[in-house]
Amino acid sequence: MPVNLLEFPDRETASEAAAEWLADSIRHSLEHQDRSGIVVSGGTTPGPCFDRLSAIPLEWSRVTVIPSDERWVPGDHPDSNERLIRSRLLVNRAQPGHLLPLYREGVEPGAALSLIKQDLLALGAPACCALLGMGEDGHFASLFPDFDRLQQALDPGYSEPCLAVRTASSPHVRISLSLAALLETERTLLLIFGAAKRKVIDAAAAGNTTFPIESLITHLAAPLTVFWAP
């Protein structure tokens, strides 16, 4: 399936547009249900988008933020996506929002999967939207090419919403939402920057690659929306 790719002149403009896109999704969702959820990625790319989104007036007390993935480190660790979300998204107007953390203190990663699943089910409805990122190796969330259970993680019929991920490319064990879980979101936006990532998404959209992102493109019910800037 082709992607819906929108080009922006710079990263600031793309990040602002992504924030507005997410805000529109949240508003629409809250018009039709009591609570809403959004999935967001970590890393360096979404920070400016979070800054913008946190300043937009929404009924944040009715919104739960779900990380797409998380390193198995405490929430105050510099490498934690939870720390990023708490410090740059759940602030300002968004401070009343809620976080569904993936890291669970005192629990082994494998044992945490059932706890996370219960919490996801307790939300009562799929997330209204997802903001994902992508690496130059084509990974999204923490579904890396060298993950030994990648085929299972990218199976749209997989019954579990998350997996523990161990790869040689990451110093930390990670928890990642599965493709099946991400496919349940109503709208999905991929925010990427730079020429290298543009080449990856163009190749994946054309098909016949080994990039994990191609599975997301293939199995989404509608074309993947991509915001790109140099």
Instruction: Give the class-level CATH name.
Output: Alpha Beta
The CATH architecture is 3-Layer(aba) Sandwich
The unreliable regions are none
Judged by helices, strands and strand pairing, the structural class is: alpha/beta
Q: In what range is the share of β-strand residues?
A: 15-25%
Shape: globular
Number of strands: 10
The tally of domains stands at 1
Q: What does the average pLDDT come to?
A: 97
Rg over C-alpha atoms, rounded to the nearest angstrom: 16 Å
Strand order of the largest sheet: 1-10-9-6-2-3-5
Largest sheet: 7 strands, parallel
Q: Do you know the CATH topology?
A: Rossmann fold
Helix proportion: 25-40%
By DSSP (H or I, 4+ residues per run), the number of helices equals 8
The sequence of SSEs as H and E is EHEHEEHEHEHEEHEHHE
Could you give the distance between the termini? Answer: 24 Å
